[in-house]
Amino acid sequence: MFDNAGLRKLLVDHGENLTLSIHTINSFDTATLTQARTVTNHTVKTYLYDFTPSMIDGTSVLQGDRRAVLDSKTSTGITTPEPRPNDKIVGNGDVVNIVHVKKIISNGQLMCYILHVRE
User: Fold this and answer.
1) Domain holding 93: CATH number?
2) Reported pTM
3) Which domain holds residue 50?
4) H or E stretch including 10?
């Protein structure tokens, strides 16, 4: 069973407002041979933590990879947009790339996202 209270406590007590940077690839321009990208930033309470040593397999989980818990709401109170692989978490002089996204839903409500992130 999902422990919403425990996760909320982690976010409240230890989370910090970081930037979720959503990168959207737009259409390809054949005239300029370029592909435009749109970046949308959202401030979201985030809790970063390390994988346990036993989870580091050198293939899917590398040394230095971390997990991030993103709150279900942004700092402005809107629902946090669903992150995708290759989006980024930015803050405290660090940028990490999102590798994998797990959406946590309890009783039909979005609780948070749990991300696998890599520098």
Assistant:
1) 2.40.10.270
2) 0.85
3) 4-118
4) helix 4-14
